[in-house]
Write a structure and sequence with these properties.
Number of strands: 4
Shape: elongated
Strand content: 5-15%
Strand order of the largest sheet: 1-2-3-4
Number of helices: 5
Oligomer: single chain
Helix content: 25-40%
CATH architecture of the domain at 34-134: 3-Layer(aba) Sandwich
Order of helices and strands: HEHEHEHEH
């Protein structure tokens, strides 16, 4: 009795670590930390026109324990700095930070004692998104750059150490 020939299904073989990095980079859950006008642009990035869910990042989490990317959008004041550090420390490893806008990157036009001149003085930043405020396309570009960094295994899965300045 002759059986019909069995079809051979193609399958992919990849190192398990690459599969983990691919899954991590395509399922980023951002923690929203909108502080100023950049937050409006961050919200519009998640809306239907720009739709960051195409890249696996649609779930904005309010709890830091459920998110792995912190998007700091806007200026960080001296009073808000301890809150930002607490939220960052509550996030589980691996975690990444995106500084969105000139205020989060370098203090922006605010040159006074009340505004922290760059969020990188508080937490380690992986991607800087320039602009005042940056367009939603720029944030999408920063998120895609973060995905590429994760897939290239730049600091992927490694807890970051940072010597924090006194607040």
């Amino acid at each position: 009795m002759d059986y019909p020939p069995r079809e051979r299904l193609p399958f992919f073989v990849a190192p398990f670590e690459k599969l983990i990095l691919w899954a991590r980079s395509n399922s980023l859950w951002p923690a929203q930390f909108g502080l100023a006008c950049c937050a409006i642009e961050m919200m519009s990035t998640a809306a239907s026109r720009y739709d960051m869910s195409r890249f696996g990042m649609e779930v904005f989490r309010a709890s830091p324990r459920q998110s792995d990317v912190m998007i700091v959008a806007g200026r960080v004041s001296q009073k808000m700095a301890p809150v930002l550090v607490t939220i960052y420390e509550q996030m589980l490893d691996p975690k990444w930070v995106i500084a969105m806008g000139d205020c989060a990157s370098c203090g922006g036009v605010f040159n006074n004692y009340a505004v922290i001149p760059g969020v990188d003085r508080l937490v380690p930043v992986d991607v800087y998104v320039a602009g005042c405020p940056p367009r939603p396309e720029a944030l999408l570009d920063g998120l895609i750059l973060l995905q590429q960094k994760i897939q290239a295994k730049e600091n992927a899965g490694q807890p970051k150490r940072l010597h924090r300045e006194s607040i």
